[in-house]
Amino acid sequence: MAQAIPAQISGQPVLILKEGSTRRRGKDAQRVNITAAKVVAEAVKSALGPKGMDKMLVDGLGDVTITSDGATILKEMDIEHPAAKMLVEVAKTTDDEVGDGTTSVVVFTGELLSKAEELLDKNVHSTMIVEGYRKAEAKALALYDEIAIDTPPTDRGMLKKIAMTAMASKLIRENRDCLADVAVDAVLKVAEKVGEAYRVDLDDVEVEKKAGESLVGTKLIEGIVIDKEVAHSGMPKRRENARIALVDSALEVEKPKFDAKINIEHPDQMKAFLDEEEQMMRGMTDKIAASGASVVFCQKGIDDVVQHFLAKKGILAVRRVKKSSMEKLAKATGGKVVTNLDTFSAGDLGRAGLVEERRIGDDKWVFVEACENPKAVTVLIRGGTEKIVDEAERSMHDALCVVRDVMRRPKVVVGGGAPEMEVSSRLKAWGERLSGRVQLAAIDFAEALEVIPTTLAENAGLDPIDILVELRSRHEKGEEGTGVDVFGGQVRDMAKLDVYEPLTVKEQIIKSASEAASMILRIDDVIAAGKMKAPPTPPGGPGAGMPPQY
Ligand SMILES: Nc1ncnc2c1ncn2[C@@H]1O[C@H](COP(=O)(O)OP(=O)(O)OP(=O)(O)O)[C@@H](O)[C@H]1O
Ligand SMILES: [Mg+2]
Q1: Which pLDDT score is estimated for 83?
Q2: In the prediction, which pLDDT does 9 show?
Q3: Among 173, 92, 73, 106, residue whose Cα is nearest residue 396
Q4: Are 113 and 520 in contact (CB under 8 A)?
Q5: For residue 531, what pLDDT band results from cuts at 50, 70 and 90?
Q6: Of 393, 383, 394, 381, nearest in space to 100 by CA
Q7: Cβ contacts of 202 within 8 Å, gap of 6 or more
Q8: pLDDT value of residue 550
């Protein structure tokens, strides 16, 4: 039970923790942590796979998110328990590293902990379990590598299958064919060959979304979309074969930074003053026009007078463009962002086949497209409602990530629980040869992998035991690629169904899950500081305002 007083000397309590702190130790602490983590895993389990269900999450402000993405579910759940929070972190790390597999990693961690709990019941010490898990992790990674299939990194067909599999488990699965094409094209456009390998920075793929039209209207723009309108009504709204100036200083007459007074004693002086100002602004416009620019993107403001002069010269200008968008514009058009107009020349200009202001829903956006060999592109997501567009954005993130993963490391495995089953059976055979209690933990690790095919079957309304038995026997016969065909309701060769996933995702799941499980198992003392002094009469009645019991 919780205690704040760890020792007593001749009847006198020695206080080392603040009043209100709670402490749990030994098996008690372990069990509470394991239970908390298992509860989290249980919560996302039903979202795994193409037949998994979606969750509707309502935050404190009443905003609704509908998703089946593991990392998003956990983020929105606003979890409080420290051990449960570690699972949220595991999902987040997996999302940051590989972009997919966030539900699997949480489900697998939960299963590892549940197996560990059984071992703790059998009096196997947690350090033994951790050691067994660590050994099994290393072996599992080697086994995954053994069963992985090499693929050419730019094989469009395979990359599309990878993207389709990642999107198969999402709300937008009906339209995944066109979305997968967009994802593959986007990554191929921004990929750079460095030696034999490919480097892909997904920051170069901007994802914009706007409710309206339908998901089929989602497209790749070979350039950038700026959510701003053309600055002046007299400017052209469309320029073909545009030569683009990118300016990050204000096209205005700078006001002095200190307080200054100008004494004007004669109307001529006033006129001269205004003329001078106008001359400076005309000078700015002339410098831009002299470079041959037909379009200007400015990171800061553009004075009304400058706008007017630019409009007269037929130059399309957009002001207050975000810094990040300016950088992307530079990458997409091949132009340079300049600060000083005096050193500005034609060589700094970027190029685009078309710059045009278009109406998107109830906004006006400027499209910079048909860029030649752009190194930054935009995916514009459309969809029936806000919620669909939001989930499509998350699914697009997964698809872009998995395509990137395969380009970076061109190795894939089939999906549908087949690789988990295969690695599990090989890992068991290897584990049998270990000695001592570590063996028990290693074999449990292997068995925990079966949670993926079992859950896929369960979520598809199939009998998990029947499916597992059949999968085991098929894999024993050497049918490595057999997994759960959730749509056909049977076990099948997943390669025939074109279900492929990046090896990197599977590796990350193994690494993150076993690290998180080991970390939770090593904890045998939970000391929670009192959050605040309990008020004399807590408003919620006795007990309210007390520290949470971990
Ligand atoms: N057509 C399919 N048939 C069977 N299994 C499939 C199919 N498509 C995908 N899967 C499996 O579904 C699982 C992935 O499900 P899901 O995308 O819901 O979770 P995740 O990738 O772990 O997490 P998240 O996508 O939420 O980050 C993988 O094991 C994958 O092999
Ligand atoms: Mg997924």
Answers
A1: 83
A2: 67
A3: 173
A4: yes
A5: low
A6: 394
A7: 187, 190, 400, 401, 404
A8: 65
- On whether the CB atoms of residues 501 and 415 are closer than 8 A, the answer is yes
Burial class from Cβ neighbours inside 10 Å (0-12, 13-18, 19+) for residue 346 reads: exposed
Phi first, then psi, for residue 303 (nearest 5°) are -60, 150
List Cβ neighbours of 52 (8 Å cut-off, separation of 6 or more). Answer: 46, 68, 103, 169, 459
> From the CA of 47, how far away is ligand 2's center (Å)?
10
Residue type, 307: Q
Give the distance (Å) from ligand 1 centre to CA of residue 500: 10
Burial of 238 (0-12, 13-18, 19+ CB in 10 A): middle
Q: What is the C-alpha to C-alpha distance for residues 329 and 327, in angstroms, rounded to an integer?
A: 5
C-alpha distances (whole Å) from 128 to each of 124, 239, 440 are 7, 69, 9
SS3 state of residue 95: helix
Length, in residues, of the chain = 550
Phi and psi of 355, rounded to 5°? -120, 125
Res 5: pLDDT:
47
The closest residue, in CA terms, to atom 20 on ligand 1 is 101
Sign of CA dihedral 292, 298, 300, 304: positive
C-alpha distances out from residue 108 to 12, 257, 265, 425, 429, Å: 47, 60, 82, 16, 20
- The whole-model pTM stands at 0.87
Stretch 92-101: mean pLDDT = 93
Cα 392 to its chain centre, rounded Å, is 13
Q: What is the mean pLDDT of residues 500-528?
A: 90
Q: Could you give the CA distance from residue 452 to residue 474 in angstroms, rounded to a whole number?
A: 17
Structure tokens at 93: 């790390």
Tokens of 322: 């975000």
Show the tokens assigned to 224: 């950038």
Residue 429 predicted with pLDDT over 90: yes
* pLDDT, tens only, 149-191: 999 999 999 999 999 999 998 888 888 899 999 999 999 999 9
Residues with catalytic roles? 69, 102-103, 398
- Contact predicate 335/349, CB 8 Å: yes
Task: Kindly list the protein residues whose Cβ atom lies closer than 6 A to any atom of ligand 1.
Answer: 47-50, 52, 68-71, 100-104, 165, 168-169, 398, 415-417, 452, 456, 484-486, 497, 499, 501
